[in-house]
C-alpha cells in the first residue's frame, strides 16, 4: 500500500516477501509475448490429451473461472479459448535464478521458499532507500529485466510479510504491521492466517473460534491442550508475532546487475557505448560498496519485439573497475549483436562474485604496476560520490566522448582534484 511510503521502523527487522505472479504462465509470456500477452493461458500436464490438472493459470484465465488444481476438461468448459501450455521446468528454473539474483543484489539475507517465492531481510540495506523504495526498485527491476510481474509484502516479520504480499495481486506492494492486525485481519476466518490449514481451521471452529480476532484473544492453555506446542504459535500468529529468522540460502548464486529500458530504440554504436559505460559504472560502484570482485561479465539485450538474449564472458583476473567491465561489455555486444537491429533495453551484470579480501588477485605483469593506482582512483571516486552525490563524477564517455573522468572541484583527504576536464591517473590508455 503505497500510502504508507513513510514506513521505516526505528528498530527491529524489516522483511520483504517476494511472490511472483502466475509465475509459470508469466515466464511463457515473457518468452513469447506475441503468443500469450493478454490472453487466458494455463500450464497443465497432458495438454495433448486434455487430461491432467491446471498447475497455474494467467490472471486473464482466472477472471474466467480457471483455477489451480482444476481438471483441464473443466477449465476448458469455463474458458473455451484457454491456451494450454506444457510445463518447461528447466525454463522456470532459469527465470527463478534470475529474479533471485536481482533480489540478492539488495541483501545477502535471502531465503528461497519455492521456485517463485523468497524472503529478504533488508534490515541492513538502508543504503538502497526506505523499505517501500527498495520494494519498488526490486519490483521494477524484475519487470524491466525479466518482464515478470511480482507482488511484495513489507513487514517486521516473515509471517506478516507473506500475508502482505497476498493483499494486492498482481504487481502490488503492501505493508502490514503488527498494529494493523486488529483492523485488517481480525474479522477474517482463521483459515486466512498463513500456516493454518483446512484441518486446523475446522478444529478451531469446533472450539468456537471462527475468526483470527477470536484466536488472538483465546485462552492459550486451552489451545495448547488441543494442539500441543502449536497452540502457542497459533495465538502468537493471530497477534502478528513471529520470531523465525530469514534462513540464508547458500545456494543462491551471487550476482549484481543493472538494466535500463531506453526512452527510444537505439542502434548507433556511440549511443550503445554510452549506455554500456553508464551501466558498467553503476554495477561496479555497487560491487565495490559490498567489497566484492567479479569474475564474469554478462550483458542483456532486448529488442523492440521483446526478444531477449544474454551473453557472458569469464575473465582470467577478477575485477572491480568500471573501465574493464565496460570494455568487455562492449566486446560482447559487438561480437554477438553488432549493428544487427535496434535495441530497447540493455543490461550489465557481474557474476561469480567473491569477497575482495579473500581473493588472491593473480595480476599479470602488465597490470601489476597499475592496479594500486586503479584502486586509489576507485576509492577517491567512491568517496566523492558518497559525500556529494552520484553527479559529483561523470565520465566524458557518458556525455558522448571518451571514458575519461570529469570531476568537480573537491578535496578528499588532502588530495586536490582539479576542475572539469581532468583525466585522473590510471585512466590514460
From TrEMBL:
Task: Please give the PROSITE patterns that the UniProt record associates with this protein.
Answer: UMUC
According to its UniProt record, the EC number is: 2.7.7.7
Cofactor annotation: Mg(2+)
UniProt enzyme class: transferase
Location in the cell reads:
Cytoplasm
As its record notes, the protein acts as a catalyst of: DNA(n) + a 2'-deoxyribonucleoside 5'-triphosphate = DNA(n+1) + diphosphate
Name the major location: cytoplasm
- Kindly list the GO molecular function terms attached to this UniProt entry: DNA-directed DNA polymerase activity
Tell me what this protein is called.
DNA polymerase IV
Q: Which organism is it from?
A: Paenibacillus nicotianae
Amino acid at each position: 500500500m503505497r500510502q504508507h511510503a513513510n514506513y521505516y521502523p526505528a528498530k527491529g527487522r524489516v522483511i520483504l516477501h517476494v511472490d511472483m505472479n502466475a509465475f509459470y504462465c508469466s515466464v511463457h509470456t515473457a518468452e513469447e509475448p506475441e503468443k500469450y500477452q493478454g490472453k487466458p493461458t494455463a500450464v497443465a500436464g497432458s495438454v495433448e490429451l486434455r487430461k491432467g490438472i491446471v498447475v497455474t493459470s494467467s490472471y486473464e484465465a482466472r477472471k474466467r473461472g480457471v483455477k489451480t488444481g482444476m481438471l483441464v476438461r473443466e477449465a476448458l468448459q469455463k474458458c473455451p479459448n484457454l491456451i494450454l501450455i506444457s510445463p518447461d521446468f528447466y525454463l522456470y528454473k532459469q527465470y527463478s535464478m534470475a529474479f533471485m539474483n536481482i533480489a540478492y543484489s539488495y541483501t545477502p539475507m535471502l531465503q528461497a521458499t519455492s521456485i517463485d517465492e523468497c524472503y529478504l531481510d533488508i534490515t541492513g540495506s538502508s543504503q538502497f532507500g526506505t523499505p517501500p523504495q527498495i520494494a519498488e526498485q526490486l519490483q521494477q527491476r524484475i519487470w524491466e529485466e525479466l518482464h515478470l510481474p511480482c507482488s511484495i509484502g513489507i513487514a517486521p516479520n516473515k509471517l506478516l510479510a507473506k500475508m502482505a504480499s497476498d493483499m494486492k495481486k498482481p504487481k502490488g506492494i503492501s505493508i502490514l504491521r503488527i498494529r494493523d492486525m486488529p483492523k485488517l485481519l481480525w474479522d477474517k476466518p482463521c483459515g486466512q492466517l498463513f500456516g493454518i490449514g483446512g484441518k486446523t481451521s475446522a478444529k478451531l471452529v469446533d472450539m468456537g473460534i471462527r475468526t483470527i480476532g477470536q484466536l488472538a484473544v483465546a485462552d492459550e492453555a486451552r489451545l495448547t491442550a488441543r494442539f500441543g506446542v502449536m497452540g502457542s504459535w497459533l495465538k502468537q500468529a493471530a497477534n502478528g508475532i513471529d520470531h523465525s529468522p530469514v534462513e540464508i540460502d547458500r545456494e543462491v548464486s551471487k550476482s549484481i546487475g543493472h538494466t535500463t529500458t531506453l526512452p527510444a530504440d537505439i542502434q548507433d554504436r556511440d549511443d550503445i557505448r554510452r549506455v554500456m559505460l553508464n551501466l558498467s559504472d553503476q554495477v561496479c560502484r555497487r560491487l565495490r560498496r559490498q567489497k566484492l570482485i567479479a569474475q564474469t561479465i554478462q550483458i542483456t539485450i532486448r529488442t523492440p519485439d521483446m526478444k531477449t538474449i544474454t551473453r557472458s564472458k569469464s575473465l582470467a583476473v577478477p575485477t572491480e573497475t568500471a573501465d574493464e567491465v565496460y570494455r568487455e561489455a562492449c566486446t560482447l555486444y559487438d561480437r554477438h549483436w553488432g549493428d544487427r537491429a535496434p535495441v530497447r533495453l540493455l543490461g550489465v551484470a557481474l557474476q561469480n562474485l567473491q569477497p575482495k579480501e579473500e581473493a588472491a588477485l593473480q595480476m599479470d605483469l602488465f597490470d601489476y604496476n597499475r592496479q594500486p593506482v586503479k584502486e586509489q582512483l576507485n576509492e577517491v571516486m567512491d568517496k566523492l560520490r558518497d559525500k556529494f552525490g552520484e553527479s559529483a563524477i561523470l565520465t566524458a564517455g557518458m556525455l558522448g566522448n571518451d571514458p575519461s573522468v570529469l570531476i568537480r572541484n573537491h578535496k578528499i583527504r588532502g588530495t586536490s582534484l582539479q576542475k572539469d576536464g581532468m583525466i585522473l591517473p590510471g585512466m590514460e590508455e
